[in-house]
Amino acid sequence: MRTDELAWAAIDAETERQERQLELIASENHASGEVIAAMGTALTNKYAEGYPGRRYYGGCEHVDTVEDLARDRVRELFGAERANVQPHSGTQANMAALMALCEPGDKVLAMSLDHGGHLSHGHPKNFSGVFYDFHHYGVSESEEVIDMDEVRDRALELRPSVILAGASAYSRIIDFEAFSSIAKEVDAKLMVDMAHIAGLVAGKAHPSPIPFADVTTFTTHKTLRGPRGGAVLAEVEVIKKVNSALFPGGQGGPLMHVIAAKAIAFREALAPEFEEYAASVVKNADALAVRLMERGLRIVSGGTDNHVMLVDVGAKGLSGREAEDALHAVEITCNKNLIPYDKRPPMEASGVRLGTAAITTRGLSADDCVTLADCIADLLDVPSDDSVADRVRGVIGELASSHPIYPDSSLSGA
Length: 414
Ligand SMILES: Cc1ncc(COP(=O)(O)O)c(C=O)c1O
Description:
The protein is of the alpha/beta class.
C-alpha cells in the first residue's frame, strides 16, 4: 500500500529515468526484480549483530539461513575458502580488510586516485588516508598502463605492510600474480579490491585474484549485478580478523534484507548464463571503444580489456564536465573522470568514464554499441548543435525503449 505520495513519486520517477536513459556509469548496473524484491522484505526489521549461530539477538534462525546461503554461494562463485557478506558498502569492506591486515599508521601502497584508484585507497579525507600511511603507484605516461617495474621499485623503497591492487577507472587486465610476487618479495600482504570487475571474475571474463590475494574485497552492485553492498573473501585464519574488524570493529547490525538480496544475486551469478553476460559486457565495451576510436576519440591506453574505458574528450576541446552534461541532455548517463596526468581539476576533468555493465544487462548488443558510439561521437563533435542532439536523442530513445529493463515487473513505475 502506498500512502506517501511524495516519496513514491520520486521513486517512480527514478525508475522511469533508468528505463528512459542509457546507463554508461561504469559502477552501476540493473539488479534483477528478484534481487530488488528481497530488499523490500521484513528482513529489514531484524537486528542480527554477530554471525550465524553466534548472534547477540534472539529470533535469528531465518536470517542465519539467509546469511549462510549468501556465504556458501559466494565462496562457491569465487572458489574462496571463507567469506564475509556483511559490509554495507565497498568502502566498509576495505576498512575491514585494512584493519585485518595491518595496524593504524602502517604503510600501504595502492593505485593513485588520479590514475584510476579509489577514495578508499588512501584519499586524505577518507578513513584510509586518515588512519594509514598511503603511498601510490600510477600508470606510465607513455602506455597508460600499470608499470609493474614501477610498482616493484616503489615497494622495495617503501617496504609497505600492504600492497593494494584494484581500481575504479582502469581498462586493462590487472596482473594479480605479478602483484603477489612483489608482495612476497617485500614481505607485504596483498589486498585486492575487485569492486569493478567482480562480475567479470565471477563470469570468467577476467583472471581471478583469489589464488594470489591475502584478502579480496568487492562491491556487489557493479558488474556483479547484485544489491548495493560489499563483501570480503579470505582464508580461514584471515577471515577471523576480518569478521571482528567488520563487527564490532566497523559496523553494527548487518542489513539482513540486503544480505538476502546478495544471496539471490550470487545464485544468479552461478548460473551458466552469467558467463555469457560477462563475456558480452567485455565484447560490448570493446565494440564501443573501437568505434569511438574510429570516430577520432582517444581512449586512454588505446582500448579496453574489461567493462570500462576512459574517453579523453580534452582532445575534442571539451572538459569531462561539458561532455557529461552534453551526453546527459540526450539521455546518456556517464561521469566525468580524470585521465592520467590530467591538467584539469577533478570537477572539470578531461575525460568521461564509460562502462557497459548496465546496457548489457538490458540486452544491448555489440552492433548497438557501434550505434551508441556513433551517437556519442556525433554529439561530441558538435555539442551545441540542437539538430544533432535531437537526432541522437531519438536514436537513444529507441535503443532504450526496445530494451526495457523490467519488462514484466511492477518496477516499471506505472
Ligand atoms: C575500486 C572500488 N573500491 C571500492 C568502492 C567503494 O564502494 P562503495 O561506494 O560501495 O563504498 C568503489 C566504488 O566505486 C570502487 O570502485
